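Dear support,

I submitted the protein below through the web form. The confirmation email said the job was done, but the results page showed an empty box. After a refresh the structure appeared. I'm attaching both so you can tell me whether what I see now is the final result or a partial one.
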Amino acid sequence: MAVKSNLVNMVVCLTATCLVCAALLAGVYALTAEPIAATNAAILKASVSAVLPEGGELSESRPIEVGGQMSEYYVSTVDGVPAAYAVKSTTVGFGGPLTLMVGITADGVIYNTSVLSHSETPGLGAKCSQDEHFMAQWKGFNPAQKILKVKKDNGDVDAITASTITSRAYALAVQNAVDAVKKIGGSENEQ
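What the results page shows now:
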């Protein structure tokens, strides 16, 4: 005998289906939340290590405002004296948020940069994390002697070919990190 289709039967079936799907999603989330958090922490730790000189003692994460947004930074100290800072900086590129880890020495020179995440166009803006020439120009970049803008904007940064917006966003993220370090430089020395 076939079940007669009516509104009550449809609501019960739809509710049961939704409950099963919700339970499955919750189970998958519970299983994957910890491994995802551990992977993100490992990526962050590797990025901090990549942008700071070796040999310092690394602090815990500290809150800071970078480019008008709350972010975080780390201090590498040698013999109790700040030697370098790793600042997480986010700006908006062509495809969406562009998040960098920027390493800056105590004297204000950029030690290195690392891309944490981006939504840039593959093959164009995505080169910000792959183009050797673009990434290498940040090592040893001294904002006191050079202008942190792309050459198209009368600066000293070589833009990625066909990705001026991404290059501008990258330079802005680095500039925001430099400005943040300038603000915390005095407060670190007071501690």
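Response: this is the final, complete result; the empty box was a page-load delay. The mean pLDDT is 91.
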